[in-house]
Write a structure and sequence with these properties.
The structure holds 2 protein chains of 2 kinds. By secondary structure, chain A is of the alpha/beta class. In chain A, 45% of the residues lie in helices and 11% in strands. Chain A has 15 helices and 9 strands. In chain A, the strands form 3 sheets. In chain A, strands 3-4-5-9-8 form a 5-stranded parallel sheet, sandwiched between helices. Chain A has a two-stranded antiparallel ribbon with strand order 1-2. In chain A, strand 4 (162-167), helix 9 and strand 5 form a beta-alpha-beta unit. Chain A starts with 5 loop residues before the first helix and ends with a helix. The longest helix of chain B has 15 residues, at 6-20. Chain B is built from 12 helices and 14 strands. Chain B starts with a strand and ends in a 13-residue tail after the last helix. In chain B, helix 8 (212-224) crosses helix 12 (311-319) and helix 9 packs across helix 10. By secondary structure, chain B is an alpha/beta fold. Chain B has helices spanning 6-20, 44-48, 60-72, 91-98, 101-104, 134-138, 151-163, 212-224, 243-253, 268-280, 304-307, 311-319, and strands spanning 2-5, 24-28, 53-55, 76-80, 114-119, 144-146, 168-173, 180-183, 196-199, 204-208, 230-234, 237-239, 256-263, 289-293. In chain B, the strands form 3 sheets. Chain B has a 7-stranded mixed sheet, sandwiched between helices. Chain B has a 5-stranded mixed sheet with strand order 9-11-10-13-14, with helices on both faces. A two-stranded antiparallel sheet of chain B has the order 1-8. Classes of the chains: A alpha/beta, B alpha/beta. Chain A binds chain B through residues 121-123, 126-129, 133-134, 138, 141, 143-153, 155-156, 162, 174-175, 178-179, 181-182, 185, 336, 339-344, 346-348, and chain B through 51, 56-57, 59, 61-62, 64-75, 89, 92-93, 96-97, 100-110, 141-142, 144, 164-166, 193, 239-241, 243. Chain A: Keywords: Pyruvate.
Chain lengths: 362, 332
């Protein structure tokens, strides 16, 4: 990864970093990135199996009316899991609504992750305790929060990193560009991770950006940038480990673009057949990240049939737990509407609280 | 007590807050060595260092979003938007995140921060420099919105706003930056959330805030020549609204006029009129009227005198409240 000039030092690899071909065999497109330790790869595989099962379960629960909506990340497991594995508990993760599997991989409770999508509360987990910001629905707004928090942590003498997840559509938003610029100017320890999954709801990448790759967008801001095969877990993990280490060491922010694909629709409420060809989806299924890593690890004798069965059984049990949690009826307390609007409640709110309390009693 | 301008009072409040609390940081465009385009942050970088008061890239959404992260990280940012209309690119950050983070996280995260917005006209500014944007912010639950009308309140309110655990939109009336009065730097902590009676009177209550407080007081003086005894209430806090002070005043006088610079339709004055009417209906001798800016985009400087409520326009409206208790027909 030696670069000749400072500008060139920021440029991403000409082709996405890749360790594994689609069939799971080794390829040499990793541009000097090193192999993650094998235990880390096995752990990534375990979490990818778990994450895929979680995702399928959540999608099924929308059909049963248990979730208001669910944006699937099936096919993006390598990106999701590597995002969590690249971080320590002291680092902050800034996920979007599509990144529930990353939160599963970080160890959050599924019931707490799905509180938002179930419609009980805007955020089901404690962000202060978990160091996971609320899953962000507006696009790219949280990249600025990540930059600010990263700068705050550095000023406080912590060596923690902020890690912001976004999709390809969010790179068109102004906040993405302002965040890259702010982070670069302040040398904030933040990693911007773009999962380019091909679509912003229905709009394909070629109508989203004319850039040769979104990774190039970092260069103009002075942000070190990289692109990676998002369906190659070995590559994603290696590149993100490197990006996090770069940010943590005080060298400034990093932008990583993963080239991946959204196998399912934008959410369960969307009809993807209206804007894309099924043949394209099938092509991407052939690049499946879970099977690719499984083939590689099996070939390398790092994973046995017994391990695979064990992980699948664990995932089934996990899914059953998700079902049980979600099938239990929860009635949020209406009086919670008035909590946490202000630290010091206003008189107006007190009056409206009394109104709702009276309505409930009537 | 020394006589100082509102801009100097704000500067003193910022300095004292930076001195008293290590978590307080000032940042934004031009707030560093330049001291802000209105010199409100004058000398703070020189005296406290760039760690405490620093310039950022020119991007308002960036400034606010960055401040959200800094506040999540334990700091108390006091940021400047430079001019009212410049804050609009940051509107999403303010309404979707600053206002809501505490609620979204059920109290796990809070955003004690102050967004300073020099607002309103009367300074001969060109377009996009003179908007009165208070209604956008007062309509957003989760924000506290305050605006000082005097140098003393500028000091007290800004100190209180910086200490507030809730995010505060701090609207600074540009045309009053240079008005002076003796200012005491001992705070009683009572400015926040409370309106104040600036001048007592028996016949009518003028309800004003920010840039219109001085105009309302001038009107009250002029009204004595007409034999009217005018009370002036300065709201100071636009959200939350101090019903108690306002209602007590209108119940005493039986008549009220709300004065603001912002456009009338859907404006903040409508909320004030509704609240006063609901709570003082039986004491009112006339409908509560409004004197406001026109429902036009803020005009170019050579025409702004037609936009801004002045003493004559307020007096004419007061006259329409008819002192002999005859039925009143509300006009435009």
């Amino acid at each position: 990864m030696s670069r000749e000039t400072p500008a060139a030092a920021l440029l991403p690899s000409e082709v996405p970093v890749r360790f594994l071909a689609e069939d799971g065999t080794r390829v040499d497109q990793h541009g000097g990135y090193s192999d993650p330790p094998s235990e880390r790869l096995v752990e990534a595989y375990r979490l990818m199996v778990l994450g895929r099962r979680f995702d399928a379960q959540a999608t099924a629960l929308t059909k049963q009316g248990r979730l208001a909506v669910y944006p699937s990340s099936a096919g993006q497991e390598a990106c999701q899991v590597a995002s969590a594995l690249a971080l320590t508990d002291a680092d902050w993760l800034f996920p979007t609504y599509r990144d529930s599997v990353a939160l599963v991989a970080r160890g959050l409770e599924p019931g707490e992750i799905l509180t938002l999508l179930r419609g009980d509360a805007h955020c089901g987990y404690d962000p202060a305790k978990t160091r996971v910001a609320p899953q962000c629905t507006p696009l790219a707004t949280q990249t600025l929060h990540a930059a600010g928090l990263a700068h705050a942590m550095r000023r406080r003498g912590e060596d923690s990193v902020a890690f912001a997840l976004i999709g390809d559509g969010a790179t068109s938003e102004g906040d993405f560009h302002e965040a890259l610029n702010f982070a670069a100017v302040f040398k904030a320890p933040v990693v911007f991770f773009v999962q380019n999954n091909g679509f912003a709801i229905s709009v394909p990448f070629e109508k989203q950006s004319a850039a040769p790759a979104l990774a190039y967008k970092g260069v103009g801001y002075g942000v070190r940038s990289e692109q990676v095969d998002g369906n190659d877990a070995v590559a994603v993990l290696s590149v993100l480990d490197d990006a996090v280490a770069h940010a943590r060491s005080g060298l400034g922010p990093v932008l990583v673009e993963a080239h991946t694909y959204r196998i399912d629709a934008h959410t369960n409420a969307d009809d993807a057949t209206r804007y894309r060809d099924q043949a394209e989806v099938e092509n991407w299924r052939a690049a499946d990240p879970v099977r690719r890593l499984e083939t590689y690890l099996t070939t390398e004798n790092l994973l046995s049939t017994n391990d695979i069965e064990r992980f699948q059984a664990e995932a089934e049990k996990f899914a059953a737990g998700v079902r049980d949690t979600l099938n239990a009826d929860v009635e949020p307390d209406p009086m919670s509407l008035f909590e946490h609007v202000y630290a010091v409640p206003t008189r107006q709110l007190a009056a409206q609280r009394a109104l709702v309390a009276a309505e409930l009693e009537a | 007590m020394t006589e100082i301008s509102m801009a100097q009072a704000l500067n003193a409040a910022l300095r004292d807050a930076v001195k008293d609390d290590d978590r307080v940081l000032i940042f934004g465009e031009d707030v560093g060595p330049l001291g802000g385009v209105f010199r409100v942050t004058d000398g703070i970088t020189a005296d406290f260092g760039e760690e405490r008061c620093f310039d950022t890239p020119l991007a308002e959404s960036g400034i606010v979003g960055f401040a959200v992260g800094m506040a999540m990280g334990g700091f108390r940012p006091v940021i400047e938007m430079q001019f009212d209309a410049f804050a609009y690119p940051a509107f999403e950050q303010i309404t979707s995140h600053v206002a809501k983070l505490r609620n979204r996280t059920r109290g796990a995260l809070s955003l004690p921060m102050v967004i300073r917005i020099p607002y309103a006209g009367g300074i001969g500014g060109v377009e996009h420099h003179c908007d009165s944007s208070e209604a956008y912010y007062t309509h957003t639950p989760g924000l506290r919105v305050v605006t000082p009308g005097t140098p003393q309140d500028a000091y007290d309110l800004l100190r209180d706003a910086i200490d507030s655990p809730d995010p505060v939109i701090f609207l600074e009336p540009k045309c009053r930056y240079w008005s002076k009065e003796p200012v005491s730097f001992t705070r009683d902590g009572a400015a926040m959330d409370r309106a104040v009676v600036r001048r007592e009177g028996k016949d009518v209550t003028l309800i004003a805030y920010g840039p219109m407080v001085a105009t309302a007081l001038e009107t009250a003086e002029a009204a004595t020549a007409e034999g009217w005894d005018v009370e002036v209430v300065d709201l100071r806090s636009l959200n939350p609204f101090d019903d108690e002070t306002v209602t007590a005043s209108v119940r005493r006088t039986g008549r009220a006029v709300v004065v603001h610079e912002a456009a009338r339709f859907g404006g903040y004055g409508a909320e004030v009129v509704a609240r006063v009417t609901e709570q003082c209906f039986h004491q009112l001798h006339a409908p509560v009227l409004r004197v406001t800016g026109l429902d036009i985009p803020y005009p170019p400087p050579k025409l702004e005198r037609h936009q801004l409520p002045d003493v004559d326009r307020i007096l004419d409206t007061v006259a329409r409240l008819q002192w002999n208790d005859e039925p009143v027909v509300a006009g435009a």
